[in-house]
């Protein structure tokens, strides 16, 4: 009888990095499918090109720097998919390629890879494209169909993710499985909703695919958001406040992206101010 | 169904004794004092006194007693003992309980479900004894309130304890399982300021046996999970794990890991010859042990979400790994109760608790 002697705990939750990442990818597939349904093949090409570029870029980066290839963990795929969803369907195909390369090379691996990123890679890619080719990133005017079903099938959508807020119902599954944090989306959505109520903004122009993507998928990215519990409430609230300001004076969709990116800057600060304090009730011998 | 099965006399017992009062070759009886606060749990001959494996780490001096017959010393209960006498009895009986003046005595009745059910079984089987033992503890510490914390899912135990309890004693349903080291947390969950003493339902039963029966602590209830039959066994202190596992039908296959106490905090054993000691409440046998590869921390904060002490296990683990013990100290590594919840939830399978223990040891060395 040969017994293994190892440290506790002796049971582990059935959870892995792969599971978390691929679940998020799967949760986003429905909205990608609706986008292809609404916009046709251009949307499909954008999604495929983004994901393909992400995987290829990560492989090359890790090969050339002699690191372990980690494309199987799904994180690169997720970055590519998220960026694709932020784009309008009328961009030339090299736009997602450039955006994803920026995201993977500069926002992810230059910072040390998964777990070390400071700014959401997909959003960095998006911001870069917006700055470099602002005119190409403008959604083409799309004729509105009368058959638009609010929240379900938005034919008037200007970006892939905006086609169907409802298709992102998978976020609830991620919450249920605790694959994403609930505190950030809660304070995020609550404050946006409250402000909309106070400012008398129509709900359908607030609860867009962009907001859902922002609150549940972008603002819950792991290493770019606070780790402390209270810090996460603050982070969500901060994003929401910035969105309201940004959306009020500028563009709502861009507001969502830039707010999260801006809050990423504050993450270390928030973590520092919410770090665990001393507990008076604890009797220490 | 009977909750707790009784074992037949084991062939031998191995009892840790710090300063033995008996010699090799001597005959001892059940309940005979063989060391300070240490008693023989069987009758028979002391065949060896030497350093032997102990379930919680290094080898310690232990007496090996080969059993023969079943002769017991005469147990003499004391009628209506005073608080000081109770303290004396508890100490003499070898019950590891610290009695300090308190307003409240809290008994922990939670278990690491589904692997351990010993406390649950004790409450179903010995409700009277537990309540009486608790009363004794209250008398000895001067407490006016007694509180029994019971796992929310154990509604049957809750019912029985509620039907049995007397004035001054309350029951409280608890969602969390409190293992050893989490006494302060349990206290905090139940009351905030008052002075309280924390013990377990098993210890209350032992106190009852000591005071009302005059019997020292020589047996304990152990949940055996992973043998052919899962059982709660009343085992004599010193019984080798192997004998208890045989009592439960033996191994189901080739065991890979044998753990004393629960899966979250228990200690993996190098051999099944180690004995049950005071404070053993579970034996867990695993047949399929996969060594999971550790991946880098992805900063997902799942460990933070589950930490009962509201610490940042990810920060502690990473800092310990980088030998930045100063950061561990700032992030209150001392508060960690080593419950294992963080390592359980970590998708990267990082040995967080090990790293934390390492940091604690390093910091202690510095002082
Ligand atoms: S073992 Fe982990 S979860 Fe438990 S108290 Fe320590 S840091 Fe927190
Ligand atoms: S659960 Fe593991 S991977 Fe996640 S933050 Fe904690 S230590 Fe890092």
Q: How many domain units of chain A?
A: 2
Q: Summarize model confidence as the mean pLDDT of chain A.
A: 92
Class from secondary-structure proportions of chain B: alpha/beta
By DSSP (H or I, 4+ residues per run), the number of helices of chain B equals 12
Mass-distribution shape of chain B: globular
Q: What composes the largest sheet of chain A?
A: none
Residue fraction in strands of chain A:
under 5%
Number of helices of chain A: 11
Specify Rg of chain B, calculated over alpha carbons: 21 Å
The succession of helices and strands of chain B, N to C, reads: EEEEEEEHEHHEHEHEHEEHEEEHHHHH
How are the strands of the biggest sheet of chain B laid out side by side? 1-13-12-16-14-15
Of all chain pairs, the largest interface belongs to: A-B, 38 and 58 residues
In the predicted model, the low-confidence regions of chain A spanning at least 5 consecutive residues are none
Q: What are the low-pLDDT stretches of chain B, counting only 5+ consecutive residues below 50?
A: none
Structural account:
The complex is a heterodimer of chains A (285) and B (367). Chain A has two domains: 15-179, no CATH class; 180-285, no CATH class. Helix content of chain A is 59%, strand content 0%. Chain A is built from eleven helices and no strands. In chain A, α1 runs parallel beside α3 and α7 (183-198) runs parallel beside α10 (229-249). The longest helix of chain A has 24 residues, at 41-64. With 367 residues, chain B is of the alpha/beta class. Helix content of chain B is 30%, strand content 23%. Chain B has helices at 83-92, 118-125, 127-141, 155-164, 183-190, 201-213, 241-247, 302-306, 313-321, 325-330, 341-345, 352-366, and strands at residues 4-6, 12-16, 27-28, 33-35, 38-39, 44-54, 57-67, 104-109, 145-151, 169-174, 196-200, 219-225, 231-236, 257-260, 267-268, 282-286. Chain B has a six-stranded mixed beta sheet. In chain B, strands 2-7-6-3 form a four-stranded antiparallel beta sheet, with no helix packed on it. In chain B, α1 (83-92) packs across α3 (127-141), α2 (118-125) packs parallel to α4 and α3 crosses α6. Chain B is globular. The complex binds iron/sulfur cluster (SF4) (2 copies). One iron/sulfur cluster binds next to α8 and α9 of chain B. One iron/sulfur cluster (SF4) binds at residues 297-303, 313-314, 317, 345-348, 350, 352 of chain B.
